[in-house]
Design brief:
The chain is 53% helix and 12% strand. The chain has six helices and eight strands. Helix 1 runs antiparallel to helix 2, helix 1 packs across helix 3 and helix 3 runs antiparallel to helix 4.
C-alpha cells in the first residue's frame, strides 16, 4: 500500500480543507518572468538588465527594458541588431545572386537565338570549284518546331523570372520578342557577311520564309508570356492551401509597397 500524505489545499475562498490527495511537486514552482530566462545586457552601454521590470512603449506597443545606466530602450524578444545585419547581408547576397542568374539566363539564351539565326536561316548551295551561294532555308517541320518550342520555353520562364517587374504579360512578350528577332537577325547577318565569302547572298530581311518564321516565333513568345500567369495561378490554387496561395500570388502580382520598404530599411 502506498503512503498518502495529508496536506492542505486552498479553495478559491481561501478556506482550508483536509484532503488525502498528494500535493503535486510542480504546484510550488514559480514561472520565470519575462526577461529572467537568460542574462541580458544593454546593447548601448553593456549594463546588466537581468531581472528588470519590462515596460511597454506608448508609441510602438512593444515590451522593452529601460536601461537605468544610459536610458536606452531595448525591445524584448525581437531580433538583435547583429541578427538584423546578418539577415541584411544574406538578403543582399541572395539579391545579387538572383540578378546575376537573370542576367546569365537572358544573356546566354539571347546568344542562343543568335546561334539559331546563324545556323537555321541560311543554307549553302554549292556551285562547284569551291564556290557557293547562300539562300534562305525553307521552313520545315524541324525548323518550325525548333523555333516554336524554344520561344515557348523562353517566354514562359522569362515571364516568371520577371513577374514582379512587368505585370503585363503581353507587353513583356512583345519586348522579349523584339529582342529575339534582333538576335536572330544578327545571327543571319553574321552568316551572310562575316562567316564566309559566298558569291551570292539572298537578303533575309525580304525573304517570306524568314518573315513567316519570325512571326511564328513572336506569336509564340507573346502567348507563352501571357498564358503562364493564369496557368501558374491555377496550379497554386489547386495544390496549395487557399491562404498560402492567396498570399503568394498577391506577393508575386502586386508591386512592393514603397512605404513598407522604407520601414524595412529603417
Amino acid at each position: 500500500m502506498g503512503i498518502r500524505i495529508r496536506g492542505r489545499a486552498h479553495t478559491r475562498d481561501h478556506m482550508s480543507v483536509i484532503t488525502d490527495q498528494p500535493l503535486p511537486a510542480a504546484s510550488t514552482a514559480r514561472m520565470p518572468r519575462l526577461g529572467e530566462e537568460l542574462p541580458i545586457f544593454c546593447e548601448r552601454c553593456g549594463y546588466s538588465l537581468h531581472g528588470l521590470t519590462p515596460i511597454r512603449c506608448d508609441q510602438c506597443q512593444i515590451l522593452q527594458f529601460s536601461c537605468p545606466e544610459c536610458g536606452h530602450h531595448q525591445p524584448i524578444n525581437t531580433l538583435r541588431p547583429a541578427v538584423q545585419r546578418m539577415l541584411g547581408q544574406i538578403r543582399l547576397i541572395c539579391l545579387i545572386g538572383m540578378v546575376l542568374f537573370k542576367l546569365n539566363f537572358f544573356g546566354w539564351l539571347l546568344f542562343g537565338w543568335f546561334v539559331m539565326g546563324a545556323e537555321w536561316i541560311y543554307r549553302y548551295d554549292s556551285l562547284g570549284n569551291g564556290s557557293y551561294d547562300l539562300s534562305i532555308r525553307p521552313i520545315t517541320i524541324d525548323s518550325w518546331f525548333a523555333f516554336v518550342l524554344f520561344a515557348a520555353a523562353f517566354g514562359a520562364v522569362g515571364r516568371m523570372l520577371m513577374i514582379r517587374r512587368f505585370r503585363e504579360g503581353l507587353l513583356f512578350g512583345l519586348g522579349l520578342g523584339a529582342l529575339v528577332i534582333v538576335a536572330v537577325a544578327m545571327g543571319a547577318w553574321f552568316t551572310a557577311n562575316i562567316d564566309r565569302n559566298p558569291r551570292h547572298v539572298v537578303p533575309f530581311s525580304t525573304s517570306p520564309e524568314f518573315l513567316l518564321l519570325m512571326a511564328w516565333t513572336l506569336i509564340t513568345l507573346v502567348l507563352s508570356s501571357a498564358l503562364v500567369w493564369p496557368i501558374w495561378s491555377a496550379m497554386a490554387w489547386a495544390l496549395l492551401p487557399k491562404e498560402l496561395s492567396r498570399a503568394m500570388l498577391r506577393w508575386q502580382r502586386e508591386p512592393t509597397d514603397r512605404n513598407l520598404s522604407a520601414v524595412e530599411r529603417a
